[in-house]
Amino acid sequence: MNKDFNHSYWELKSYFQPCDLIVVGAGIVGLSTAIAYKMKHKKANVLVIERGVFSEGASTKNAGFACFGSAGELLDDLQNSGRTSQVWDTVKMRWEGLGLLRKRLGDKAIDYKGWGGFELFTEKQEWEAVCNALDTLNSEIKVNLGIRECYSKVSSPLKYTKGFKGALLNEHEGQLDSGKMMFALEAYTRKLGVRLLYNIRIEAVLDLKAKVLLSTSQGEFETAKCVVATNGFAKQLLNLPDVTPARAQVLVTSPIPGLKIKGTYHFEKGYYYFRNIHNRVLLGGGRHLDFGGETTADFGLHTGIQKQLESLLNSNILPGINYTIDQRWSGIMGVGKEKKPIIKATSPNVIAAVRMGGMGIAIGSKVGEIAAGLLD
Fold first, then answer.
1. How far apart are CA 234 and CA 232, in angstroms?
2. Is CATH 1.25.40.20 the classification given to domain 114-172+243-335?
3. Which residues, in sequence order, are bridge partners of residue 280?
4. How far apart are the first and last CA of the chain?
5. What is the pLDDT of residue 1?
6. Tens digits of per-residue pLDDT, 120-152?
7. Residues of the chain with pLDDT under 70
């Protein structure tokens, strides 16, 4: 069936053998799914197929935030969602996912720094509304996550930023190195005996009930079960109405001597976010400035949003500081009307594990664990 692809006898025997499980997508969710399944089924033949030369989408293009939810964003979710329990279920999945990721890989391997997550507020009215709800949010966090006094008011970020009316700290959040995280996750996956193939584009996933056939740019693969973990690219393979690609713009500054920023920061309900990377600042977001233009699965820079990011750096985040912009890029997330991930069977032998809502680092390991559980 693969004779037209110039594959050798050895390649066909070694790489195209029928599998027990094929995972589509070698990001956090895909690798976590393969890990969870292989740990339970040690003799299973498990293969992960990735379309990029490394994980393509958000896993290596994200900001490296080990965060599970800022107070303002959480309050907004609770006020606008008709299902309060679902909001808390999602936050709990993020918290448990972060714990699983750190336990599995170790903080040193992923360069985890528990410097806290800060939320800044540009509008006095919003700041006061969140402050009024702080006791309730902390109480609910304690009930659902077991964390005491999760959010607290702080003044430190307001001393070196400009234009913000207030600041909150979640000391249980942190940051990590996304590249090191993916290196460690790949190594962990391979150590279990899972095979990884890169630079192969999946063209179709066909569930024949007795088996699943994957048509790819390198020929046809056969498997008993398949998990599609391509997040924002899921619609290219599956009929899933409520998962949409969402592009995110990012930039990184030149080194800044004496940089005071330390930790992760969100503002405007999480649509903007920044952090220190050593003595540089990473700033991303702005998707809400052009939802239509950024609803795309194509990588690329949005000139208007990039200019707004620069303006925020100059006026609010690094006022009066000299620097240049060293890098710019974009990543593709998967979003929908709801923030809870989609983890379900789309046919008898195919599972979807998508729609991370920009929280892949936090929730991805837990989503992979749940997806693997659905295969039994």
1. 6
2. no
3. 277
4. 29
5. 60
6. 999 999 999 999 999 999 999 999 999 999 999
7. 1, 3
The rounded distance, in Å, linking the Cα atoms of 264 and 206 is: 42
- 249, β-bridge pairs: 285, 330
245 exposed, middle or buried (CB, 10 Å; 0-12, 13-18, 19+)? buried
- Is the distance from CB of 92 to CB of 68 less than 8 angstroms? no
The conformation of residue 196, written as its DSSP 8-state character, comes to E
Top-tier CATH class for 3-60+180-241+338-373: alpha beta
The reported pLDDT for the residue numbered 3 is 64
pTM attached to this predicted model: 0.96
CA distance 122 to 273: 13
Question: H or E stretch including 205?
Answer: strand 202-207
220 by Cβ neighbours in 10 Å (0-12 / 13-18 / 19+) ranks as middle
Whole-number Å distance between alpha carbons of 183 and 106: 13
CATH 3.30.9.10 in the chain is located at 114-172+243-335
Edge-to-edge strand list for the sheet holding 244-253: 151-153, 166-170, 117-121, 264-267, 272-277, 280-285, 244-253, 325-335
CA-CA distance, 375 to 350, in Å (whole number)? Answer: 9
